[in-house]
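Let us begin with a simple case.
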Amino acid sequence: MNGIVGYGAYLPHWRLRGSAIAAALGSGGGRGARSVASYDEDTTSMGVEAGRRLLARLPDGYEPGLLCLSTTAPAYADKTNATAVHAALGLASNVPAFDAVGPARSGIGAAWMAQAAGGIAVLSDMRTGRPGSADEVGGGDAAVALAFGGGNDVLAEIVGAASVSAEFTDRWRAPGEPFSQQWEERFGEHAYVPLAEQAV
């Protein structure tokens, strides 16, 4: 089974402090700060930055089986965003590039696909939330790139994986809506815990 042979991450320079959120809203805000993309950054440009850091750490001779870009906030809705990352990283034209867009969980699918193909998964997001919500306070803008392969270059080996799929609505965002919605957290616990028990 392929493991991680390289990684790279990108965090935008700007920060929004929890204290600033609390000062503006009168409550909430939490501790610390969240990363905030600049006006000229998007999920594609952040993915490129994470990918460049990855390329600097890859073992000699590494050739990816594919590149998959995962995001909930694609720069283009009706164009493959992964090809821009592919081109900026100078990958060979025979390396396929795919988008995995939609829910935040599409990042798991991108990593799963890259692991199976010995490829690169780029996960890049700009997360926003309703003012004062857990998404606003606990979210952030960032990107990470993971390269998968085998042999002696493996940094982190995947020793096992399991999956259970079930349909339930605990978190959602309709097309055109700026923020995600979710049921009370206890609802998710009642759905997720039995699924996790099934998986193990």
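The second case is a distinct protein. As before, the sequence precedes its structure tokens.
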Amino acid sequence: MNGTEGSNFYVPMSNKTGVVRSPFLYPQFYLAEPWKYSALAAYMFFLIVTGFPVNFLTLFVTIQHKKLRTALNYILLNLATANLLMIVFGFTTTMYSSMNGYFVFGTTMCYFEGFFATFGGEMALWSLVVLAVERYIVICKPMGNFRFGTSHALIGVSFTWIMALSCCAPPIFGWSRYIPEGMQCSCGPDYYTLNPKYNNFSFVIYMFTVHFSIPLTIIFFCYGRLLCAVKEAAAAQQESATTQKAEKEVTRMVVIMVVGFLICWLPYASVAAYIFTHQGADFGAIFMTIPSFFAKSSALYNPVIYIFMNKQFRQCMVTTLFCGKNPFEDEESGTSQTKTEVSSVSTTQVSPA
């Protein structure tokens, strides 16, 4: 084995030289130079100071403006809430650990941080599943003229929490475990060992099957069918031009969110799968650190996509930031008559975006 396994950690370096120490007790500067740990801390600081206000603003603006409280927006607010939890309870501990060169908070907080990191990723994935299914039902109409209302949105939100918790909670109760990974400053599920004490093998198979492969299959199926339906509707002119445009606006936003998720999380999942299927393989600490920390940027991109692609939300946000006034209102008044919020499309057949 080219790594060193302890009772609650796995360091990707052989201890033949005797330099490997517990990542809960000693700086891990033998894995990477101190400046690299400082760079990780700076990166996490950037995600905190940008991700927190953007996600908080998303929640605050929606709460302040009743017209934004639509069914589809409940799912997007759910994402913002999950991101805030991940930032407050996960990113802060990771940043401080990176500043010190090891996970200074001990094994209990490692489980805590690993839980919220996994929770955030799974909440994003299952929220995208709900959005994909909603788009499929609204546009492809397998259930007729189905209206996606508030009750359905709340069911969708509950579903995302159940699925996310069913993925990140088992290690807390003994099915697998959370351990420091990469440069040993952040924690995640144990892909590195087949420790029979924790049944790691069965958990990783469960995680990759139920909480990665299946949701991605659902997403790709829904958007495959959706693409065909949009082309058929456009060819047959079954909907008005404004309705088609509105549906395309919403669909484009959700598709971009899916692409963003894949860009952030697919490298991490691929590296984790490689490590799991090549037990004992020789790999450096940075090999897992870069995709792990890059995946954390997902807490920032979703609200940014939502803000940039939802015109009504942008208008409400500007009104909130400028204490009830919108200095850009005159510039946008010419187009605002023909466009309503993107998020309202899911609740009716004809409201344009």
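The longest strand covers residues 178-181. Residues 200-236 form the longest helix (37 residues).
Keep these points in mind for the review questions at the end of the chapter.
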